[in-house]
Each structure stands twice: as C-alpha cells, then as structure tokens.
Design a protein that fits this description.
By secondary structure, the chain is an all-alpha fold. Helices cover 69% and strands 3% of the residues. The chain has helices at residues 2-29, 47-70, 75-92, 99-108, 118-121, 126-139, 144-167, 176-181, 185-189, 196-216, 221-238, 243-256, 260-284, 295-301, 321-349, 355-360, 372-377, 384-410, 418-433, 445-460; strands at 30-35, 39-44. It has a two-stranded antiparallel ribbon.
Length: 461
Amino acid sequence: MNAVKKTIFNLSLWISILLVFSVLIFSIFVCAEYDYDDYPYFTRKSILEHFLYLGIAGLIGFSILALGRMCKWNTLVAMIVFFAVSIVYLILIPLKPFSDMGIVWEIATNGLKDESGYLSYYNNQIPLVIYLWVISNLFGNSILVPKIMNIVLCSITLIYTKKIWELYSKEKIGKKIIWFAMPFIPIIIYMNHIYNDILFTTLTIVLLYYVLLYKETIGKQTSLLASIILLSAFQYVIRPVGIIYIVAIAIYMLFFRRELKKTLIYCLLSVLFIVGITTVNKTIFKIEDGKSFPVWSYIQMGINEKEFGFQDGTHSSDWTFDDCIQKYKTLGLKKVFKIFAKKIIWVWSEGTYQAERYGFGSFESEYTSDNSIVKEIRDIRGSTIRNVINKIMKGQYYIYLCLALFGIILMRNKESIGILYIIICGFLIFYTIWEIKSRYIFSLYPILMVFAYAGYNKIVE
C-alpha cells in the first residue's frame, strides 16, 4: 500500500510540476487567445508588451497587499473591500444574461417552464435552474440577486482557501492569503456570470477543506464523512466534471488514509445521492431518456482538428463510441498528439478563463443601462478596456502561476496535500479528451492561490 501511495503521490506531483513549467515556457513565446466568433487560436507574443503587463499586474497585486498591511491583514476589511469593488463593477457593467446563462435564467424566472426543451438536451443544467429558481423566489426576480449571490459565494471561496492554507502551514491565522488572492481580476469579472462555475468552485473548495480536515481530526469523523458525501453529490450534479473530485477523494481515502471500509461507504453513498438527486430532477421536469447528448458527442468534439478540441457545434445524440474510435483512427496518432498538445497549452495558458466574454458580454449581449464604459465595451474587437484588462489578467495569471510552481516545489514533501495534485492531474487528463474552454478550469483557481501563496510567502521570508 505504501508503494502505491508513493507512486500516486510522486506521479501526480511531477505531472503537476511539468504541466505548470511547460505552460510558463510556452507562454514566453506564444499567446493563447480567444476569438469572439467562438474559437481558440495562438499568436506570437511581443516580449516588451508581455513584460509591461506583467509589471502592471504586479503593481496591482502589491498595491492590494500594501493596503492589507495597512489594515493589519484584517479579514473583515478584506471582505468589505472585495464586496464594494464587486458591487461597483456590477453597477458599471450591468450585463444581461445571454447564451446558456440567459436560457437557464429565463427558465428559472418563468416558473420552471422549459418551453424551448433546452433541459431535455442539457439535463446537467437542471440543478442550476433549481438553484436560480430558489434564490429568485426568496429574494426577488432582479438579475442582481444571482450576481450578489456570486459575491457571497466568492467570499466563501476566499475564506475556505484561507482555511486550507491554515491547515497546512505554520500560520495559525492565514489571513494574508485573502489579501493575496483578492486582486485576481477574473474573480471580479465573473460576478456577471450567473452560471454554474462560481457555485461549483465554492462547493469544491469547501469539500476539499473537509477532506483535508478529516485527516487532521480524531473525533467527529462520522459527521465530517457525511458532509463530504453530501458535498460530493451536490458538486457532481452541479457539474458532472465533479467526478474528478469523487475519484480523487476515493484514491486519497484508500491509499493515503488506508480506510477501505470508509472508502466503500463514501463511494456507495455518493453514488446513491447522485442517482437520487438526478432522478428527482428529471421527474420534476419530465425529462425523457435518450434526448440528452451522450458523452461521445463531447469526446468527438475533443478531437476537432481545426479548433483543437474547442466546441464546434457538432453536438448530436447519434454519436457513439465506435464513431469516436473511427474519428481517432482517421486522424492518426500524429494528428491526435498534435491536437492534444495544443489543447493542453491553450487551456492552461489562456489565463483569463474567458472572463471578458462572460463578464463583459459578447456580440449578442445587452445591458440593463448605458454608460460610457458600456458604450466602450460594446465594440467587441476595438474596445481598449477589453484589450487592456485582458492583457493584465494574463500578466496576473502568469505571476500567480510562476509563484505556484515555486510553491509546489516547496511543498513537494507534504503527502497530506497529495489530493490537490491528483485533482490537477484529473483535470489535465479529462480536458485532454473532452471538448475544451479555458472557463472549464476556473474552479481550480483556489488551488492555484494556495500554491502561489506558498511560493510568495517563501520569497518574502
């Protein structure tokens, strides 16, 4: 068992290091970009411009940290600043929901009536619709309700990121990490995105905290295990990619904790809760089996050669396993490897999680009111604000990523956080095969912050 544990830990650790290192090396020469016609591409990078925006991103970070130092790293002050900045942003850019988030919001505020039949094809959106329906009934149908809930959820995410750091550092009170993570611009821009990403991120970081706490706690393990099972089920039904967390937790409990019985209980009850919730959801919306897109539809898009795995609109209920195998054979090993390499570099180096599109809007987007900023960002391709913020976000991402690489190397002997490496590897494998968007790895940013803060802390020391 020890040999298996060491193998899993070392393999996931060095794959994580290699991934981050490779992305940083490639990002020196090429820039992963997203076009609003909905496709990914690469461009050559201007080194001078690259360092200019790295400098601006660094100044923003140090300014927030200086403010934190002045406030004696007070968590309440950090939350007030975070809330105030988020509210100002929502007022300045009052984006109406569009695309998929517009559809789910319409269903939720229309008494759960799915007149378009959208949920028949995208069953996984049912929990999100129910969540939006609940909060809109409790607090009103204003679009500000889910956006303010986004602020609350992101605040919880920051707090639990702090709690995870406190578990695995010498700091009894790790409140500096909140100030360290707060300047991350995509978090703020995503406040306009009333979709499953922020909710999923919060559920998974709370889940990870309880998993890590479970190892440290001698008593109350039954209640902690119950919480882990419930959170595992809920995060999965919100986004099925949550299977990565369930598998990672099972591996962690079996090989790192050596608890076969509890691992089996965890897996069995998690599956029962997932099946139960999914069945109830389908019953409520009278969903017929056979209409939703099969996994093979997503996998075949994952080897779309022209856009290297980006969603290309070829969804169909008719795709089968044999069709996918045939598509792989037709492309050949060399082309498939090339597609996979491009996918990995683009997803992990794009650096903004496509925040501009989801937070500022796209071609079809509308706004609840007009102001000078809205008028400027309406010009999708010519907007200076979009262009500058996009480059600053990339600069920020590379700074955090560089610090995270240092942090991972520093924490390489801590087997207790092996689950974090397993999750990174899980996302890497999953989105090498699945269709891609850089938005899909947004939920990993709290893990990025933990490792980045470890690196930053060591430099400061």
